């Protein structure tokens, strides 16, 4: 067979040759919509490759983006790596201090930035975080009057360059891009994807075992392009010639649902907190976007009630599991063919409520606490989840976090339970598990049970220190407008869900909203800090 290097040109050329007539739609924060095609995106990406050469950036320089989802960001997704350079997508919700650390750690030489994010970049600059950066290129025609190194306008630079760029021979093991973990449980670490891992990931997530997308689809990744490459959707959709709808700006759920309807979206991807809001919006309108085939929920455990709600809409919500370190997609909870004969309750329990079936080429194992033997997939035994595969990291950038690579496996930091039918579920993150009286309590299971209560909009459960039991669960609950909930009701519900008496929280906190992390997950680190200091003060 031919020894064709698996590099990003394979994705890009395919889109340019066969799908130059397919639309890429950007919904801007100001309500306007920008329409272009893959023909435009690929042409402008080639111009961008020329720009990067003309600026004199080293052939292997790291070029960052600080940007919302948009066609320009998509141009950078290909223009930077196909010029041989490395694309580093910066999380715009991080603090200026954290951003400065990441930019310096990655050694970013240039940054492509949306104009509304310039104030954030100026803060980073003021803290000395742009020392490695020679060029700040503002997405747009205008050049704002700000003090930043090598300031230039993206459109002006592009206009000076021809749309020709020779297809270069890039080694498939060369770096393609860098994403930092969002730091939910500690300081962010750099994850470097290769061309090969990006191509293999794009191919696999397109299949019926992944997101199940193709040229007949219109995909709307609600996941930001700065968060684990929007789970690889922009790469896959471009390669496949699927229409893409990119939502630039903070989430506005009404607009999101309008876009799903107006643009005929067939598949959409996002974290559970998004789908909680979308489900409410569908219910409020009494309308479900007619072409929507399925939505994918990843990044955290979706509550069973949410999965059931989407099923009642006729749109399956597919649970996916993965991490920045695993491509990110590593499993999706598609039901198997013979499960069609299962009743609804069994189907939801055995497939939809699981983190999924590993994707082809991805291997997962659940280890015993001794770290040596693998646990049986018996639906009971719970232990650390390890993973390996062609799009799983074997080291962090600059050798950080070395203790997580063991004997060819990556220790995910999640705790899982494997079932005899081949699915696995995430019981918790190691750092979120609650250790009470020497036994473990799963915060994820407790949250799922609480969010199954009709009175409860959101719930997060964290460990608080306890002199006698070591730790106790604290339930933080957002009650729906007009509803109320008591500790007795919470206990009743949790007991019905199978929690033992000793596992029940002694108290609960009623919150207006559960704080979110930079990628929209419940911020348990913050809650823990908040209630731990209050707890110790008491
Ligand atoms: P961060 O680690 O900073 O939160 P990631 O987006 O890489 O950023 O998060 C990966 C983590 O998200 C996983 O380790 C896991 O704890 C959690 N996660 C992802 N998908 C699921 C899922 N389906 N169920 C439960 N937890 C999930």
Itemize the secondary structure elements and their pairings.
Layout (H helix, E strand, L loop, with lengths): L8 H10 L4 E5 L5 E5 H17 L7 E5 L4 H12 L3 E4 L6 H11 L1 E7 L3 H9 L8 E5 L11 E3 H6 L15 E6 L9 E5 H12 L11 E4 L11 H8 L2 E5 L5 H10 L4 E4 L1 H14 L8 E4 L6 H10 L3 E6 L6 E4 L11 H9 L4 E2 L4 E4 L15 E7 L16 E2 L2 E10 L5 E6 L4 E3 L2 E3 L1 H9 L4 E11 L3 E10 L7 H10 L11 E3 L13 H14 L1
The chain binds adenosine-5'-diphosphate (ADP).
The site of adenosine-5'-diphosphate (ADP) has 22 residues, from strand 14, strand 20 and strand 21.
Short description:
By secondary structure, the chain is of the alpha/beta class. The chain contains 15 helices and 26 strands.
* Estimated helix fraction: 25-40%
Structural class: alpha/beta
The rounded distance between the terminal residues' Cα atoms is 70 Å
Identify the overall geometry: globular
- Name the poorly predicted regions: none
Number of helices: 15
Biggest sheet character? 9 strands, mixed
What's the overall average pLDDT, rounded? 94
Query: What is the CA-atom radius of gyration, in angstroms?
Result: 23 Å
Bound molecules: adenosine-5'-diphosphate
Number of strands: 26
- How much strand? 15-25%
Order of strands in the sheet with the most strands?
A: 2-1-11-10-12-13-14-15-16
Fold and architecture overview:
With 538 residues, the chain is an alpha/beta fold. 30% of the residues lie in helices and 25% in strands. The strands form five sheets. It has a nine-stranded mixed β-sheet with strand order 2-1-11-10-12-13-14-15-16, sandwiched between helices. The protein has a seven-stranded mixed β-sheet with strand order 7-6-5-3-4-8-9, with helices on both faces. The protein is globular, with a radius of gyration of 23 Å. The N and C termini lie far apart (70 Å). The chain binds adenosine-5'-diphosphate. Adenosine-5'-diphosphate (ADP) binds at residues 181-184, 228, 298-301, 319, 321, 323-324, 328, 355, 412-414, 426, 429, 519, 521.
